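Q: My labmate handed me this sequence with no annotations at all. I'd like to see what the chain might look like in three dimensions before we decide whether it's worth expressing. Could you predict it?
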Amino acid sequence: MEITDGDGQGWPLLQTNMRSNTSFFKEQGLLGIFAALLLPIAVSLVLPFKKSLKNKQKKRGVITNTGGELGLAMRNIKFDSLIHEPWSGASTIASLFEQSCAKFSKHPYLGTRRLISREVIDSKDGRKFEKLHLGEYEWENYGTVFNRVCDFASGIVQIGHDLNSHVAIFSDTRAEWLITSQGCFRQNLTVVTIYASLGEDALVHSLNETQISTLICDSKQLKKVAAIRQQLQSIKYIIYFKDYEEVGADVKSKLNDLTILPLHEVEQLGKNNPTPPRLPEHDNIAVIMYTSGSTGLPKGVMISHGNMVALVAGVRTVIPKIGPGDVYLGYLPLAHVFGLAGELVILSLGCAIGYGSPLTMTDTSNKIKKGTKGDVSMLRPTLLIAVPAILDRIRDGVSKKINEKGGMLKKLFDLAYNRRLKAIEGDLLVASSLEAFIWDKIVFTHIRALLGGRLRFVLCGGAPLSADTQRFVNICLGVPVGQGYGLTETCAGAAFTDWDDTSVGRVGPPLPCCYIKLVSWEEGGYTISDSPMPRGEIVVGGPSVTMGYFNNKEKTKEAYKVDERGIRWFYTGDIGQFHPDGCLEVIDRKKDIVKLQHGEYVSLGKVESVLATSNYVANIMVYANSFNSYCVALVVPARQELERWAANAGIAYKDFEELCENEKAINEVQQSLLEAAKAGKLDKFEIPAKIKLLPDPWTPESGLVTAALKIKRETIKAKFKNDLQKLCQ
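A: Here is what I predict for the chain of 729 residues:
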């Protein structure tokens, strides 16, 4: 089974050879017979206890008096007040790291796969593909990693780095990323995190705005740095992770005015010349984290040590029992707050982190040499953090393969799936643990093997997870799914579903480290007095709310407010509603910036202004949501232009409405939008994949535009709801 990204290109997520119907049932023959015999027994065991579901829900959040006059605030019911630290004394990332390393010193911590060989293959179209033969994971325990961190912390001082300037890390996720960042924290150095995929303009902006003195990167990023060297204002030192790819002489020549050292030399320098640590305070800035910059130049979010440890403290209280025996697959970008926060939670629990990447994750991933095991097969993780797109691919791939096999295999799968679905949704008739055991052995074991067979918990965040996919993971992978909601400005976390909450479509109650407040947005029609549930803009307050945007007081003032109690609140721009049990559901977006399924941000207004340059467009509204990887558009065509084209093309039509439904007319307008998009330098994901032509103009009288002829987005979405749903199918 192969699961790829939406256009069939990307990296394969999972692949396995599904057994034929015959061989499958030969293997499972005895179990099948046992199932037939035991299912009636299982049913009889629970029949006396069957009862209808009650509407009572476990209370998970409670209203507080911190909302103010215009807001309704909620906190987690488990605690009477907000928590700030995972345990006493762990008030900074540096102290959290030191104490965890002391507590779990002999336990494995960081694992990296050994590179056996590397080859570059030329394809028929002239492109080159790298294939890696990777071996077992090689592990360093907590104590060893702590010593390396101390050595690096001393080494960065010894090379001459100014302790009052910033350090940037520009690299893919790997063990060295964590080691160098913790070394910086130990000397109270602020780390600037930069996506490895960041473009040149955004990279220059990030490095210059924060006046970077030392840049830490992997070997391949040195080429990007060399290309922009003349634009960098403050950089003096480069520390690089030495890989199998050697740094070329041409690259070194462009950087010959800088001090360039491999990481191992800096560590050795620090080991030979130990320097006392300069441990931070909880309100010192640990990280300046740059966003993806999809709406212009990226903004740097200032995250204090206290912000991050408060988030760690909150998440620790709501996840299942996890500890040193657990293994986490580290592949998410550490330059993203979701990945960084996840690894700090793992650190606090003493788990092991085995590093991988999307390009080496499975046995058939793009960079894996044939015959080599992927990261998942080799590591067999018990913990996984994923974005919805990955879980969607797993579901779609398995479903497709089951449907292709058909016959008895599909009937058995459907029977097992439907009965387990009823059990999860509370039907006690099928809630027997014996029946669950039988179905697991017969059907679901094979699917769980795709992710190593040992998963115990999945955390999903970054975008909304569909109900169908969540149920698939619950049943087929046999694990609870914790959905999280948060932003960079809230250290990745604000709400988190409890592990025993089997509902779908919600993101749980507030984490114990923050309040969540809904503030009425009258213009959009969302108020805290709405029935049956209060609705409004989601505002997050508490110790995990970050300090603002670096060197950008205006944007900070817009998004952050401090109330009379000293609580810092961040206004998210998202719209949510509180369920009676205190759980939050995210239902809309206040601003016209939307995150797509794979995490890209689309500024709808920017895209509309570019596409409106087409001669065929009289008016346009672009629509996108987090359940799709593309956007769509409603277009009111310029009637004269479209009719002129139809006449020249020999298109016959009864009226303008019929012309707007003509496939050739739709294709002509869509082609013109593509040309406008290219001229406006839009990204591929910003170009509408599907459009609907609407014959009637939008006027102030129709209520679809204002007197100034600006579109009323919410009104248009409501009027053309069915059309938008069809476009998004």
